[in-house]
Write a structure and sequence with these properties.
The structure is a homodimer of 328-residue chains. Chain A has helices at residues 4-11, 15-23, 30-43, 49-56, 74-87, 101-113, 128-131, 156-169, 185-198, 216-229, 241-253, 272-275, 287-303, and strands at residues 61-66, 91-96, 118-121, 138-141, 150-154, 175-179, 209-211, 235-238, 263-268, 281-284, 311-314, 317-319. Chain A is α/β, with parallel strands linked by helices and 328 residues long. Chain A folds into three domains: 4-47, lambda repressor-like DNA-binding domains (434 Repressor (Amino-terminal Domain), Orthogonal Bundle), CATH 1.10.260; 61-154 and 287-315, Response regulator (Rossmann fold, 3-Layer(aba) Sandwich), CATH 3.40.50; 156-285, Rossmann fold, CATH 3.40.50.2300. The longest helix of chain A has 17 residues, at 287-303. The structure holds a DNA duplex (16 and 16 nucleotides). Chains A, B: It holds the Pfam family LacI.
DNA sequence: CTGAAAGCGCTAACAC
DNA sequence: GTGTTAGCGCTTTCAG
């Protein structure tokens, strides 16, 4: 790899001049400039970003923490973040945390040592204490981590409420809820939204709420038990689509017809919901948009350390598909 | 952030000594060592990896190119690569290329400027010329790019053959194939495997092969047309699972029963195939394993520049699920 | 066993 | 307009 010195030598100028044309910084005679540019292309010279980073203390890298990229909610988020990141000439680092605080701390340290410029975090385990020593801008995405961090989330409670009300409106009389892992902030909000609607119904039982941990297999399992214990249930609101599909699988394995015997609504709006038969009704998040927005806000923070904390909430939207049906 | 100088000052030694204890390099008196370690922890000092990289010319970063992480085949691959990468203290960079050669070249240059240590590439567009100037180790994954690159792939042709034979064995008499994008090496191999089995059948028609571009919506569309033109088709081998699920969706929308009227087999073995009803029979790849192996081989190349090119092929395995059924 | 100093490649004062 | 030079933070000869 050619260095700036090689270019300077070939163009018969000093390295400072080369640096000037490289960064279009300060005055440089058009003729010299041309000579330098020729040398650059002759040598196929590319500036060394590591050296630049060392000088500037910034690396032009942004990292995203997700629990597990294999969970189908995250690829779209990751894609959005990468796109924005890339548009702004940052390099995109992906970290799978498994929601394991040990791994998260290890990543946090490693990234800081690499001078990453900012981090976007989806986590249920990180809290204020873990990040107070970190002097890199951090944005919370999908779930809130700490009151003093900028965040991009969706209207979880309102959306959950709307989903549950929808089930009621189409005629469901016993509505159960498969919730996510207890420690995630969005699990709590979605559960609240559900309870807002059903807690005063005389049929409501606390055993209508079971945890599926945002996980397909777990959701299948708990739904089978739920439906065996409570055959009267005719509507299920799953806190995410992966579990919604699990609920469908469980119902079908029990010989129930969806939506005739059981209506199902999910949350998230991932592509998976379109592939099943019947396809899954859901409260769709603008997943790509929230990922992209988080990246934009992060970049604002990077460019302006004094920027005030921002909290943005995107609304979710009902998408009626085939897993729900008006009953008479 | 504290620097090595601060540590040196506090421990009353030179930076060289600090460096020595940092890297357990050369002799250093146990007492001094302890003093240095105390200073390190007192200052909560972490070495600056950028400075290290500049000196060493290596960045401890590995990149993975995928066409699009939103395609459900790639998250598992990415996860595997990230896990191995992480175990070896590398940072994982993810690049979505959209199989766009322009983007790929841009990434290649940007990564080289950042001194990435190695790149794993899934691509249908990159070829020998594009990478001959790159002096960073590169491994091809899933698809072969160039004869002189190490690669990790699966037995595409054999697997396709087995899938098609399986359909024949269970009694399908008219077997069609939904293939991938023409330029991908694995599309070609899977198509060949299919043809190996059917080309001499007297019922075989070239219009039994249609391209679904490895894409769900496209597969739905072309399958509908195929099934309308050729209602006699009673078995379909889709070149990947995403298309397999699309085929199922198409068949169901046409009122066909799967597997009674139409048996479907996919390729890949992604989790999606388990969620549908009926679940999808498939030729499963050891996706995680090939991703992990590619990362391991890459690291071998990084550690030994003279390492000979390796080409590893993993075998695929039939997983019978509900979308295929023996017919009488 | 430890320190001084050169240098990785680049940028940004500061001179001229 | 252009060159000289001092670092950015670290590692590694080379002395001692």
């Amino acid at each position: 790899m050619a260095t700036i010195k090689d270019v300077a030598k070939l163009a018969q100028v000093s390295v400072a001049t080369v640096s000037r044309v490289l960064n279009s910084n300060g005055y440089v005679n058009p003729t010299t400039k041309e000579r330098v540019n020729k040398a650059i292309s002759d040598l196929n010279y590319r500036p060394n970003d590591v050296a630049r980073s060392l000088f500037k203390g910034r690396s032009k890298m942004i990292a995203l923490f997700v629990p597990d990229i294999m969970n189908p909610y995250f690829p779209e988020l990751a894609r959005a973040v990468e796109d924005v990141t890339n548009q702004h000439d940052y390099t995109f680092v992906l970290c799978n945390t498994d929601d394991d605080i040990e791994k998260e701390i290890t990543y946090l340290n490693a990234l800081q040592q690499k001078s990453v410029d900012g981090i976007i975090i989806v986590s249920s385990t990180i809290n204020k204490e873990h990040i107070q020593h970190i002097n890199v801008p951090i944005i919370a995405l999908d779930r809130i981590l700490s009151s003093d961090l900028s965040s991009v989330t969706v209207t979880n409670r309102e959306g959950a409420k709307e989903a549950t009300e929808y089930l009621k409106e189409i005629g469901c009389e016993r509505i159960a809820h498969i919730c996510g892992p207890e420690n995630a902030s969005n699990t709590v909000q979605r559960l609240r939204g559900y309870l807002d609607v059903v807690k005063d119904e005389d049929w409501f039982l606390s055993s209508y709420v079971v945890s599926g941990g945002y996980n397909f297999d777990k959701a299948v399992e708990v739904t089978i038990n739920l439906l065996k214990d409570h055959p009267e249930v005719d509507g299920i609101f799953a806190a995410n689509d992966v579990m919604g599909v699990g609920v469908m699988k469980a119902a079908q394995s029990l010989g129930l017809r969806v939506p005739e015997d059981l209506s199902i609504i999910g949350f998230d709006g991932i592509a998976l919901g379109k592939t099943t038969s019947p396809s899954l009704t859901t409260m769709a998040q603008p997943i790509y948009d929230i990922g992209a927005r988080a990246a934009e806000i992060l970049i604002e923070h990077i460019n302006d350390k004094e920027l005030l904390r921002k909290r943005e909430e995107f609304t979710v939207k009902l998408i009626e598909r085939e897993s729900t049906k008006v009953r008479r």
